[in-house]
Design a protein that fits this description.
By secondary structure, this protein is an alpha/beta fold. It has helices spanning about 10-15, 55-65, 75-85, 100-110, 125-130, 155-165, 175-180, 220-230, 235-245, 250-270, 290-295, 310-320, 365-379, and strands spanning about 70-75, 90-95, 115-120, 135-140, 165-170, 190-195, 205-210, 275-280, 300-305, 325, 335-340, 355. The structure holds pyridoxal-5'-phosphate.
């Protein structure tokens, strides 16, 4: 499949077809794993820290899905660091009060070191974001957020940032390009933890950035590529090959996981041992209307409060048999964890909140196991 035809195909098709070697007699179906540190002089590639055909295959598939130019990194946090490197020395960054802990910790540390200034705001409050953006170099957006599942209004935030002359970065890890395409809303950079849904099998740590094709003269793609090369935040070709293999099934995995999540969220909201369920699919969820407007589907992460203390929530997490008690998310396997067990998790995350990453197992098996864990722990 050639890149010129990308816009003809739906995302589910691009996930399967984009980034393959040119078809033809004897052509390989998949780009092989290029395990080499260097290439013969005077060719398209010269050194393994600068380029690798296995990266290119993954990047062209992800770029087709997000509608831009992708770069793959050694971790989601390497991608976040590369993006933070776009802020000029002492520049102002507006970021969510509550979001992925790694991103928040990195920005706070950079602010403490005086490398940048940081203003934290509630991204669901558009006037507050508008107020904070005065003089800002960058707006960092995460939607839905990890783990509170706050949904930000992408178009409104992009318009506010544009008016202030700030770059807009959107962490699209939870929604995936199948759930929302931030570049189409006018964002400048998309960030992914490829570790999660894109690779989907809990077997690699990787990250990515995607920038607009019509970047108005800021050369963001080239600056990020240079950052990756100079910081050495490069991915191993074997991991990238696994991620691309995982990406091929993204549409079916994500569709199934979202359907499971919506069904479990509905049942959990009626469970006697649960005090609050957060999932944008629920009609009374604060993010429901926004998510229905700007997303395709509601994602597959559900947050549940068990209406007790940390110890009760830990007991629930330890009482499942099928659900795996572990951190991370976005794999085919259903997992859960109490987020406040991590010291860096912000205080606005309730101590009894369990984050559920709903996988692709049979929903009745998932429900039966959750139900027995909730009953066992609260008995
Ligand atoms: C996991 C995660 C990251 C960090 O990615 P790593 O691959 O673990 O470095 C960034 N953003 C979000 C929303 C995440 O869930």
């Amino acid at each position: 499949m050639t890149d010129e035809r990308n816009d003809k195909y739906s995302p589910a098709t691009l996930a399967v077809a984009a980034g393959r070697p040119t078809a033809g007699p004897g052509a390989a179906m998949n780009e092989p794993i290029w395990l080499t540190s260097t290439y013969g002089a005077d060719g398209q590639y010269d050194y393994g820290r600068t380029g690798n055909p296995t990266w290119d295959a993954f990047e062209s598939a992800l770029g087709a899905l997000e509608g831009g130019q992708a770069l793959v990194y050694s971790a989601g946090m390497a991608a976040v660091s590369a993006v933070a490197g776009l802020v000029p020395e002492g520049g102002l960054v507006v970021a969510p009060t509550s979001a992925y802990t790694g991103t928040t910790a990195l920005l706070r540390e950079s602010a403490q070191q005086g490398r940048l200034q940081l203003r934290e705001v509630d991204l669901t409050d558009v006037p507050a974001v508008q107020g904070a953006l005065d003089g800002a170099a960058m707006l960092v957006v995460e939607t839905p957020t990890n783990p509170l599942l706050d949904v930000a209004d992408l178009s409104a935030l992009v318009a506010a940032a544009e008016a202030a002359g700030a770059l807009v970065v959107v962490d699209n890890t939870f929604a995936t390009p199948l759930g929302q395409r931030p570049l189409a809303h006018g964002a400048d950079v998309v960030v992914h933890s490829v570790t999660k849904y894109l690779s989907g099998h809990s077997d690699v740590i990787l990250g990515a950035t995607v920038t607009r094709d019509d970047d108005p003269g800021r050369a963001l793609h080239e600056r990020l590529r240079a950052h990756r090369r100079l910081n050495g935040s490069i991915a191993g070709p074997s991991e990238v090959w696994l991620a691309l293999r995982g990406l091929r099934t993204l549409a079916v995995r994500y569709e199934r996981a979202q359907a499971n999540a919506a069904e479990l969220a509905r049942r959990l909201s009626e469970h006697p041992a649960v005090s609050r369920v957060r999932h944008p699919s629920l009609p009374d969820d604060p993010g429901h209307q926004r998510a229905a407007r700007q997303m395709l589907g509601f994602g597959a992460i559900v947050a549940v409060e068990v209406g007790g203390d940390a110890e009760l929530a830990e007991r629930v997490a330890c009482s499942t048999r099928l659900w795996v008690h572990t951190t991370s998310l976005g794999g085919v396997e259903s997992t859960l964890e109490r987020r406040r067990r991590h010291p860096l998790e912000p205080d606005d995350v309730p101590v009894d909140l369990l984050r559920l990453s709903v996988g692709i197992e049979d929903v009745e098996d998932l429900w039966a196991d959750l139900d027995q864990a909730l009953r066992t722990a609260t008995r």
